[in-house]
Amino acid sequence: MTTATTTAPQGADHRRKGPGLFRQTLRLGRTEFTLFVRYKTASMYLLMPVILLLPVLNQQSVPILGEYTTTELSLIGTIGAIALFLGLGHPCNVFTARREALVLKRLRVSGVPATAIFGGVFLVVLLFTVLIAALIVAGSVALGGPLPADPVMLLLSVALGCLAMTMLGLLLTRFAGNAESAQILSMVPMMALLFLSGGFIPLDVMPDAVRQVALLLPVAPTVEMAQAAYFGYDVFGGLEGAEPVGFLGLWAGALPGIGVMLVWIVALALLVRRYFVWDPRRP
Amino acid sequence: MTTTANTTAESSAPLSTPEPTVVVRDLRQRYGDFEAVRGVSFDIRPGELFALLGTNGAGKTTTIETLEGFRRPDSGTVRVFGQDPYGQPTGVRERTNAVLQGNGLMEDLSVDESLSLARDLAADPRDADEILTLVGLTDKRRLRVRQLSGGQKRRLDLGLALLTRPEVLYLDEPTTGMDPEARHETWRIISDLKRDGVAVLLTTHYLEEAERLADRLAIMHRGEVRVEGTLSEVLGGWGDRVSFLVPSDVRTADLPHLDGADVEVQTRDQRLWATYTIRAGDVADRAHHAVAALMAWAADHGGALHHLQVRGASLEDVFLEVADGAADLVGE
Questions:
Q1: Residue pair B64/B36 in contact by the 8 Å Cβ criterion
Q2: Any idea what DSSP says for residue B97?
Q3: Nearest Cα to Cα of residue A10 among B216, B45, B113
Q4: Which of A65, A76, B14, B86 is the most buried (most CB within 10 A)?
């Protein structure tokens, strides 16, 4: 720096007080909702988990958790997979498209923090995931299933799943050049994680090593939590021989899975922060 | 906006000159082996419009993107309000805004919804009606953005940038796609911004735009600033041209020598034409002195200077010469 001073003409005392990160996130969440409803492709991510319910409902049903059957278990397991479709698919698709259309850059140059922009899309993913999860629970109850044993844990499993999958979807935008390639790109981890989620194919039928690996990935722990929270059984050690447990027993069993999810969320958030690309012009 | 007296002891600027809001020093940016920006330096003060001109790929947008905080300089210093803008830190992001080269609008929102969103996200936004009136989109407010024409989208984009009351505004080809009327109206809006003390960085392919609006300008070519200064400095450095038909009885070698001028003789239509390029001397008077000297010389030879033409430089002349790769055109 030469003679030019770096002192601002209107210094720090001139800073403006903005609406705050929380309000900005909520406001962007509202717009995300509007855009989601108007964007036809988004409905595909809503339909995918519903379509996957069909084979679940048609499979041979045998009792596995006391009186509860494999069908009921798989139905509730689907709750863990909703975030996989919506969270991974929708943000990856629309954020790639918006980056290419300079929409994201426009928001940033207007002074909107990255966290609020990411938070907005997370909110819409969470909203629609909770909505479909509520429909599945309602369907399950209508088919003679119980009311959720621990609704808080059920909600937590949905929220953790949405957060991790949204982060993963956002991270994948780095490798997509346009909305179409983003859709295809997101399908690869989507199908792999779906296969290893335990939602459709119980992890019990897989080799133990595969099961252990699956439980370290960011979907299977949420499926397990959803099933445990709904039926009140300690399924964390496998379905075989799982017993009904009380509130504390359920949460104690869920802790390793919650830990795995939190590690994924922090790691993915750091990766998104470091590698997310706002600008379509790449170095 | 108020101006602040310069309190830097080293600075030679007069006391009434505000401190620069934007300071760029020896900025360099590389893409792999390719150096897109090679040692660019400039300042922008409140109320000043600095135009960055250049051919496509000259490094203008990379420079703006660095100022916007999307790229960390490979070397050199960039400061906006005294802060490094990389990552849009608090204290910078609330006080700057930009019109990007593309629109960056959410096509599925209406004009009203776009403004409402921008207002709710901003610290101290201007009124939506005021912005719509300013950019002439009041009657389009209920339309979806995708239904607007290209020029209307540009105007909405400008409106969104003005809505946050920026103190520093980056305009990357803001009038591209606008009809002449909208372009003139945009120029008026930008002039008003300058009067309100906004520091503006403008890139444009319309040289008339830079001539009308810029207080200072730079022409970039292949990552470097080749010419920089006020408009008159830039044009002054390029020189005035006096040309005439060489009288048939005069040999080329007998053409008079003028101080501070170069003479070039060309053959056109099988006749000789002389062109004097005068670069030295007072910009306001040098053409007059040159013509007076040539008239006196012609009178001594008992003849007249036929097809006499006197022409000052236009920004386009300078731009084209820089774009052609002339390296000796570094302005004062």
A1: no
A2: E
A3: B45
A4: A76
DSSP label of A244:
B
CA distance B10 to B133: 45
From chain A, pick out residues whose CB is under 8 angstroms from the CB of B4.
Answer: 9-10
Give the gap in angstroms from C-alpha A280 to the nearest C-alpha of chain B: 11
Name the CATH architecture for the domain at B22-234: 3-Layer(aba) Sandwich (3.40)
Round to whole Å and give the CA distance between A206 and A197. 11
Distance separating alpha carbons of residues B173 and B318, to the nearest angstrom? 19
Report the candidate in A232, A178, A274 with the shortest Cα–Cα distance to residue B87.
Answer: A274
A122 close to A162: Cβ distance less than 8 angstroms:
yes
Cβ–Cβ below 8 Å for B82 and A6: yes
**A173 closest CA partner among A192, A186, A191, A190:** A186
Query: Considering the domain boundaries, does residue A281 fall inside one?
Result: no
Kindly indicate the confidence band of residue B234, based on its pLDDT and cuts at 50, 70 and 90: confident
Find the DSSP H helices in B196-314.
207-213, 231-238, 286-300
Residues 249-278 of A with CB under 8 A from B: 278
The answer to whether residues B98 and B50 touch, using CB atoms and an 8 Å cutoff, is: no
How far apart CA B199 and CA B7 sit, in angstroms, is: 19
Please give the sequence-ordered ranges of beta strands (E in DSSP) within B19-128, or none if there are none: 22-31, 34-44, 49-54, 75-80, 96-99
Residue A211 CA to residue A202 CA, distance in Å, equals: 9
Question: What is the percent of chain B where pLDDT is above 90?
Answer: 66
Predicted local distance difference test score (pLDDT) of residue A34: 96
Q: What are phi and psi of B292, to 5 degrees?
A: -60, -45
| Cα–Cα distance measured from residue B250 to residue B104, given in angstroms and rounded to the nearest whole number | 63
Token output for A267: 């790691």
Strands B22-31 and A68-69, sheet pairing? unpaired
B103 pLDDT higher than 50: yes
State the total domains in chain A.
Answer: 1
